[in-house]
Amino acid sequence: VSLEQSIADFEATSSVELEAIYQAAVQQMEAFGQQVVQDATAAGADLLSRLNETVTGASASLEQGTEQVASTLAEGADAFTSSMQEVETAFQQGLDDMASATSDAIAADLDQGLSEEDAFIEEAAQDASETNQQIGSRYDDLKQEAESRSAEGQGEGQAMGSWLGDAWSSVTGFLGGLVDSVRSWFLDTFGEFWGGLIFGVLSGLFMLGIGLAVLALAALGGEIVAAVALVALLAVGIGACIYNRFQDFYADNPGQDVGFLRGLALVGLGIADMTGIPFIVEAAVGQRAFGRELTTAERGERLGMGAVFLLASLFSVFRAVRARGGARGAGEPTGEHVSGSGKEGIRPGEGSTTGDAATTKPFSRNDASEIIRQSEGSSGPGSNTGHAMDHIPAEGRDPIDLAQARPNKANTTVWRSSRQAEQVLRDIMNANREALDALPADGETTLGGSSVVSPTRPGYISSFGQTAQPVEISQVTWRFCRMPNGRLHLVHFAPSSGP
Predict the structure, then answer these.
(1) pTM over 0.70
(2) Torsions phi, psi of 456, nearest 5?
(3) C-beta of residue 472 within 8 angstroms of C-beta of residue 449
(4) Which residues is 460 bridged to in the sheet?
(5) 3-class DSSP state for residue 249?
(6) Residue 494 belongs to what H/E stretch?
């Protein structure tokens, strides 16, 4: 047989056998599957049966246990409630016993305390009675002794007191009667208003005359005595005015209390009466402040006295202002100057002075202060600007802060106070007075130099705005010119610690 035929026969035989084997395997698998399903179904049914039996038994056991627990809890609660009731009863009984015992103890202590207090009061009353008797006895002894001693000097004391009282009463009575007589004569002669007006003017002049006489006498003792006398006169005058205001209020409002606010007002009116203004206002409205209406004679009297006081006050203010202006004017130019030569400036000792230079008042520190103030920021000569305040601390400014305020300057030296700078400038101006008076009022010619500061003055120096250090100012450079309006202009004024 050929090879191909053999292979073909083998393949045919194998296919038939394989088909038979496959069919047999399929049948066995189906039979096994059916058996497995049957076994599983039986096992599930058995398992479900057992689970039902177990659940039923557990439910019964759980119900029985729950009933037992509930029964046990109920019994425990009943026992606890019964125990608590017994404890509460015992506690309440204890409180009652304690309260009763405490009450008894307090009552006993109170009874004892009251008993001791009664005894103490009785003893104190007895001691007080004995003390009063002793004091009374001692008082009687002292009184008798005092009366005895008083009787010895009674004659002399009464005589002296009687003499002084009679003398004072006589003087005041005489003066009061004299004033009333003069006032009545003016009213009868010139009428109510004009008589009162003239009497008020004369009364005011009389008071001023007394004050001026006292000041004139005090001036003989020197300025200090005169100043003390002036202060004393003002104090007495103000006190008298305030006293009169209160007396007028009580006279116009009998039985009323002044009160705090009206008291302050009356004090203010008393002080203002020194100027005469309240008198004039009251005369105009016809009524005294916080008081009654004024009669025609009283209105005229107040108007006259107020006018005198007001004129005197205005005159005093005018004199004071004029005196202050004169002191400051000592440094102002007179307008009479001798021209300098050229623009180089006039050095100390050069030029000439006016005929009044020798009698001109010296510059004061106030003059120096005023020149510094007027020159600050003012231009002249040329593009120069007064800048003395770069070295002088203003009122309230820290000089250290001022010294450090110029970070672009290699060295900035400042005075410790403006007073020191003004004193040094005043001395420089007085030392060069003739040359300053000779400066022409052209705003260009200058006078300047360098002066030694002796004694040295304390100050501060700062380099490029760094922390300022203390320094002793021993030298100062300065320069002046006179502006076209005649004002003396401080161009430059800078301190330094030396060459």
Answers:
(1) no
(2) -65, 155
(3) no
(4) 414, 470
(5) helix
(6) strand 488-496
Res 106 pLDDT > 90? no
CA angle 283, 289, 294 (to 5 degrees): 45
What's the CA gap between 40 and 31, in Å, rounded? 14
Residue 279 near residue 269, CB atoms below 8 Å: no
Query: Is the CB of residue 497 less than 8 Å from the CB of residue 452?
Result: no
DSSP 3-state assignment of 478? strand
Contact 401, 372 (CB under 8 A): no
Token pair 């206002």 in the structure block, residue? 281
Burial (CB count within 10 angstroms: exposed 0-12, middle 13-18, buried 19+), residue 345: buried
Q: Residue 472 pairs with which residues in a beta bridge?
A: 458
**Residue that is written with structure tokens 């005198």 in the block:** 308
CA distance 233 to 242: 14
Strand-by-strand arrangement of the 488-496 sheet: 412-415, 446-462, 469-482, 488-496
CA distance 494 to 415: 9
* Contact yes or no for 306/277 (Cβ under 8 A): yes
Name beta bridge partners: 452. 475
CA 321/CA 338 separation, integer angstroms = 31
Residue 256, pLDDT > 60, answer yes
> What tokens appear for 121 in the block?
């009061």
Residue type, 319: R
Q: What is residue 379's three-state secondary structure?
A: strand
Least confident stretch, 155-169, 309-323, 420-434:
155-169
Cβ 338 vs Cβ 351: under 8 Å: yes
Return the structure tokens found at 186: 């003016």
What span, in angstroms and rounded, lies between the C-alpha atoms of 72 and 86?
Answer: 21
Give the rounded distance of the alpha carbon of 404 from its chain centre. 31
Cα→Cα distances 45→35, 48, 52, 72, 236, Å: 15, 5, 11, 41, 135
CA quadruple 234, 239, 242, 243: dihedral sign = negative
Question: Across residues 413-440, what is the average pLDDT?
Answer: 94
